Amino acid sequence: MKPKSRSGLLSASTRAFCQEARRTPGYSLLDWLHGYLYARWPYLYIGIGTGEHPLARVVGPLLRLGGRLFPRHGGDGRPTFADGYHGKVVPLEAATQLVTVQEDLNLGDLEQIIPYATARDLVLQHPDHIAVLECPCRAARATPCLPLEVCLIVGEPFASFVLEHHPRRARRITPDEATEILRAEDERGHVHHAFFKDAMLGRFYAICNCCSCCCGAMQAHRHGTPMLASSGYVSVVDTDRCIGCGTCADFCQFHAISVDDGFARIDVSACMGCGVCAAHCPQGAITLLRDPARGEPLEIRELIAGTTLPGPASP
Hints:
Blueprint: H1 12-22, H2 29-40, H3 42-50, H4 56-69, H5 81-84, E1 85-89, H6 92-98, E2 105-107, E3 122-124, E4 130-134, H7 136-140, E5 149-154, H8 158-165, E6 170-173, H9 175-187, E7 191-197, E8 203-210, H10 216-222, E9 228-229, E10 233-237, H11 247-251, E11 257-260, E12 263-266, H12 276-280, E13 286-290, H13 300-305
Parallel strand pairs: 1-9
Antiparallel strand pairs: 1-7, 2-3, 4-5, 4-6, 5-8, 7-8, 10-13, 11-12
């Protein structure tokens, strides 16, 4: 069943969301309601999800009960929670490509890139329509990392929906401004995640710039819910250049780096290939190397060209 809209009852951006929902195969009324609630009240939604909102004490037990009564786990072929809501780690260059696309795109079912059962389409309509939103994860924390304006909502119908419903927390920006936000967050050592969600029409809708202390997805990932997919790269240390200063370990949001015997050591099992360590190594001793076991990178230019290029990536 698809949601119906009447111009007298729904705002313009909500009508656009409804219209796009009708064109999305397999997208139900329940999906639409979930997506509407998520996008309309993201601070409440994320605050409850991270346990920071007072309602989490009431809603949390109900959600856990629902999970026991109606389990979603991969063993029986049904999708997990992470299948429907997840992020793909993207190094700075790949993140920049996502906010500087010059054409509409429809790239569906990116299984090799987004290794989840659902929510893995990359459909960009008016990709130059970008909103920056105050990060719901950071806003939920008592002492958040700053600045708050770091969540980039990309394309339609998402950007207009956020701008119309959150005028005090969101503003329209240009691709150049989005690029500057990405670069500034990269300098702070934060990780870029391209987010996909089943309730958001089953596709990419945002780039978040995440720190492990505030990000709800990174918090869930640490506690066993695999919400984040590797970039497709892994960090590699050149021991001839490494001086064991520990700067990379200080910046690593995934706690994948230690300094042993005077050299940086990468825990490959924990490394997500974000490139933050490479960008901040004062000796230039760390690079990103393609790791086929981690899936394909989310790199728009290569996807448009129909190829995925191997080899080292720019940090």
